Amino acid sequence: DIVALRIEPELLRRIDKLGKEEIIDRSTMIRKLIHKGYAEHMKENAAILYKEGKITFSEAARRAGLTLWDMEHFLIDKGIVSDYSIDDLEKEVALIKKSK
After folding, report:
1. % helix / strand / coil in the chain, to the nearest 5?
2. Is the predicted pLDDT of residue 97 greater than 80, yes or no?
3. How many Å apart are CA 90 and CA 78, to the nearest integer?
4. Is 38 helix (H, G, I), strand (E, B) or coil?
């Protein structure tokens, strides 16, 4: 699909500069930045929902597209303390084994 959008001239100059540094065209650079921004948004949204108690730790990791280990590190980096325990991990591993 084709999407048209307006980008401020200064931001477009910065995007073009990045593209030149990475030796990729403008469209590819914009797509790359959108993908990166989307991934970061999903991680942050999952962290917020987890912090608010609206989703479980494993659901937050799934939504963020991260492993449980990486999700734990992401939360730590954001200053969010996880209450995910070894018992929780063991229960999830048992559920995974059961579902196979």
Report:
1. 70, 0, 30
2. yes
3. 25
4. helix
Name the helix (H) or strand (E) containing 11.
helix 9-22
Whole-number Å distance between alpha carbons of 90 and 48 = 24
Look up the pTM and report it. Answer: 0.75
* 8 Å CB contact between 17 and 24: no
d(CA 9, CA 72): 38
User: Per residue in 22-60, pLDDT tens?
Assistant: 999 999 999 999 999 999 999 999 999 999 999 988 899
User: What token pair was written down for 25?
Assistant: 């065209």
The two structure tokens encoding residue 97: 């084994």
Average pLDDT, the chain: 92
Question: Two tokens at 74?
Answer: 């992401």
